[in-house]
Amino acid sequence: MSAAPTWERQDAVAPSLVRRRQTFFELLWMWCLRDVRVRYKQSFLGVLWAILHPLALMVMFTVIFSYLAPVPSGGIPYPLFSYTGVLPWSLFAAMIVAGVPSLAANITLVTKVKMPREIIPVGVALANLADFGVASILFVGMFLFYQITLSWTVLWVIPLLVIQTVLALGVVLLGAALNVIYRDIRFIVPLAMQLWMYASPIIYPVDLVPEQWRLLYFLNPMAATIDGYRRVLLLGVAPDHTALAFALAVSALLFVLGLGVFRKLEPTFADII
Amino acid sequence: MPPVIEFSHVSKQYLLGAGARSLRSVMATLPKRLLHQPIAAPPVHWALRDLSFTVQPGASIGLLGHNGAGKTTVLKLLSGITQATQGRVTTTGRVASLIELGAGFHPEMSGRENIYMNALIMGMTRREVERRFESIIDFAEIEQYLDSPVKRYSSGMYVRLAFAIAAHLEPDILLVDEVLAVGDLRFRTKCYRLMAELRRQGATIVLVSHNLVQVRDTCERSLLLWQGELVEDGRTDDVITAYVQKLQGVDQRAHAGALALTAEAGAAKATDPVTIESVCFFDQRGEAVETVVSGDALSIQIDYCALHAVQAPVVHIDFYRDGMIYSGCSTEYDEFPLQPLRSKGSIVLEVDSLHLSPGIYSLSVVIGEGHSQNILAIEHHTHMVEVIRRPNSRGEIRLPHRWLQPAHQLSTEGANL
User: Fold this and answer.
1) DSSP assignment of A53-121, as one string?
2) Closest chain A C-alpha to B23 CA, distance in angstroms
3) Predicted pLDDT of residue B398
């Protein structure tokens, strides 16, 4: 029988705030890694699924909106035009679709383990960034194929990604918390995401939206970000600053709201779930 | 010293059923809500009522109680998984809980990955895990399976790993819920040694177990919960005695209820040839007892009532513990010829020295005719007796023995050695 382990007892006092924050992010990181690893481990095609999904959407949209019912794409080859929208949208939608039911899917963790519960939906959502990264490789291939030259505006991609992620996390926190109480949320999500997609310039350009509706249209932060991606990647111009600032404000507001609702409901999760 | 755990007037209410706050019920009550009419209150269950106690650092507390008494709810409140409906729960320091072993494990991930994951979930930092990694796998004895997914682990390995991680959290409070029953004896011993070591370093342990011997060996103080209320708080031995009495009380009541029911059922039961009216325990002085010291004498008296004569009766009494027969006595096996049973009477089993290991035994009492398979009356698990450890005994039971010292060894050879 091995001897009982001995260790130095350093922090018998309550863990400090700094320490707690450090563990939070370490745990979040591990959670994402775990989610990514498990996802690819079990499926036959593994990483390929990450590309196949947006690729299929892009091909489908190209066939319909380039040949059957042509939609103007402002001189940009339609496959490139739609993939620029489909790729970030897939990330956004996947974050929400995976994140909202995540608490209800991890009942044992919620009812049997004390942990910062934000980790669960946020980690599950952020893990989709891996898929996004993989699917972006196809994008690089398309750029080479269509001989698009990138300008410095490509750096705008980073703030655009941040804005849409903040928005997604806000929706995920709100949805995941409400889904604990009302399981109906889970069924609403796929339909809502479908509607949201058509309310965003994925298959059509923003120009198609009548001028008088633009203000209302840009209430949707995804409208500004998707339009932004096209501008900075395909046209080499900066995004519409006003629309983007507006998108940032709406996203931040939703995030604060989502986190607030989550924190408010969190103490009751273990009892209700 | 300030207490490390403090419950002050804690009550916990659960909503029963899923319906209480579902969208459907919200919709259904919406008209009433809008008209400010009263809504029928959803059914609730008070899992705990007005619980108050404090625990000093370094103590080891046992939680006893029937299923549904609220033991797990206490642990969940302590760990912060759920919040009290009323009152206040205060804990000081790091709490590690083993409420469900490996609840944070992912079956597809390897032991190594799960160690990191679970330890981080419990509040360790990566660096802390790295520092204790060797010690954890050493304790869990899973070195060669470290990179296999935990879904391939045996339940023993699973428990060992989960326990090892929780114990290495350096908890100030360790909550253990009925989990060590899974491991083998060697591992359990190890766990107790580790818990003792944690206590030596000042940690507090709260243990829930149905194994009363385990609680007695680990905890000097225990709390008895009964239907959500704290009914006993004191030395473990006293609390266990109170618990056993309460259990027996319940069984007698259930039994009385059953009798009343059979009386109502009337004719069919009245034709039963023989019924067992009571089963009583007596010590060597002839006093009625509910507990007996292991190795002492015990008499069991069965009072029967026979409507029809039973010509060739057989009786046997079995001692059950944890669902297993530990011992039993049968007039059939002993070839003891019982006289025919008529009207009322009693049969007594005298055990000179009851060499059963300490624990609570439930009895199965059977009266049959001709052979024991032909059962006329049976009392299954309705009577209980507690066997307690003999003072100054080594181990579980004391063997009947005597010491000798033959004279020749002393005188010559023994002295030369």
Assistant:
1) HHHHHHHHHHIIIIIIS----TTS-HHHHHHHHHHHHHHHHHHHHHHTTHHHHTHHHHHH--S-TTHHH
2) 6
3) 79
